[in-house]
Amino acid sequence: MPFSSRLQARSIQLLLGRAMARVHKDLRFTDIPARTETLRVETGAGPVTCTVYRPPAATEAPVPVYVNFHGGGFVVGRPEQDDHICRYIAAAADCVVVNVDYAVAPQRPYPAAVTQAYDVTAWFAENGPGGGWDGSRLAVGGHSAGANLTAAVCRLARDRGTFTPRLQILDSAPLDQLADPATKQSLVAKPLLSPRLMRVFTDAYVPDPADRAHPLVSPGLAEGLAGLPAALVITAENDRLRDEGDAYAKALDAAGVPVTHRVFEGADHYFTHTGPVPAAEEAIELMAATLRSALGDRP
Q1: Which domain CATH number covers 266?
Q2: Contact in structure between 255 and 273 (CB atoms under 8 Å)
Q3: Catalytic residue numbers, as ranges
Q4: Per DSSP, what are the bridge partners of residue 40?
Q5: Beta bridge partners of 51
Q6: What distance in Å separates the CA atoms of residue 177 and residue 98, rounded to the nearest whole number?
Q7: What residues contact 24, with CB distance under 8 A and at least 6 apart?
Q8: Which residues are CB-neighbours of 3 under 8 A, at least 6 positions away?
Q9: What is the domain extent for residue 258?
Q10: What b/e sequence results for 191-221 when a residue is b if at least 16 CB atoms lie within 10 Å of its CB, and e otherwise?
Q11: For residue range 267-277, what is the model confidence (pLDDT) as tens digits?
């Protein structure tokens, strides 16, 4: 990776990291108590810190588990930006929520984040009895870059036969890292994501162009989608990533994967964090409701 590209990515970490950790004041859900603890999980790409959210109401029976991956273009490592989503889902879906602080580029480029995301999810699937959750009732999801990692985790789980997520949640996912970002259009003049910013993210995360068409990097270009977990695909009308998210939802459906797909009108990338508030609240409640349905019954 050229030094100039690495420097740009580091600058974005410093400039955007604090901004991305801020969530619209009406989306913080501070009225929902957060029962959290920190776990350290060993992976094939180094240890990973996870913040574990428990449902507000204690229960004797093991509850399901939802593994969450934050966004940030694979470059910004601020899992606390998803605190509002994690605390809401823990309460509304009555499940343990795991917020994963995975490795970011340019310090740790692909495949570090994929390895960590998969290994952490596998660990929570396997270690339910000791942790107080039911690892057989597991779902995985993420936002932006985290949604890309979600798709990769689900593909690896299917191919390796290690665990079977009941649901994957893909919120505003970048699913094609091969296409020139300038070809990704928006309905508004100045969308949140610019081609320049997107190039910096891609160059940092996948410095070798030969890797950018890999199914774990660009799930939207992959074939063989049959057998993947049921999906909730959320896209935003004005997002540059909308078209690839819409296309992936159609491809999953064509492959026989149960899909719920919602396009939120008037919204742009990252709207589940910055608003518009009504659309964000509706999207987050849709996540919780879909998780309740997918994880509610016990084996």
Answers
A1: 3.40.50.1820
A2: no
A3: 144, 239, 269
A4: 49
A5: 38, 99
A6: 26
A7: 273, 274, 275, 277, 280
A8: none
A9: 3-295
A10: bbbeeebbebbbbbbbbeeebbebbbbbbbb
A11: 999 999 999 99
Q: What number of residues does the chain have? A: 299
The residue to which tokens 């689900």 are assigned:
154
CA 46 – CA 141 distance, rounded (Å): 21
Tokens 């074939």 label which residue? 223
Q: How far apart are CA 157 and CA 151, in angstroms?
A: 10
pLDDT of residue 299: 44
Question: Are the C-beta atoms of 174 and 244 separated by less than 8 Å?
Answer: yes
Locate 263 and state its tokens: 């396009």
Cα dihedral across residues 167, 133, 286, 290: positive or negative = positive
Does the pLDDT of residue 227 top 70, yes or no? Answer: yes
Number of independent structural domains in the chain:
1
Return phi, psi of residue 196, to 5°.
Answer: -65, -45
Q: What is the pLDDT of residue 15?
A: 76
Query: Model confidence at 1, in pLDDT bands (50, 70, 90)?
Result: low
For tokens 């742009």, name the residue.
268
Average pLDDT of span 46-63: 91
- Claim: this prediction has a pTM higher than 0.90: yes
Q: What is the pLDDT of residue 192?
A: 94
The token pair at 251 is 């491809």
How would residue 57 be classed by pLDDT, with cut points 50, 70 and 90? confident
Q: How far is CA 290 from CA 176, 230, 236, in A?
A: 26, 10, 18
DSSP lists the bridge partners of residue 234 as 171, 262
Give the integer Cα–Cα distance in Å for 151 and 145: 10
Q: Which residues pair with 65 in a beta bridge?
A: 96, 138
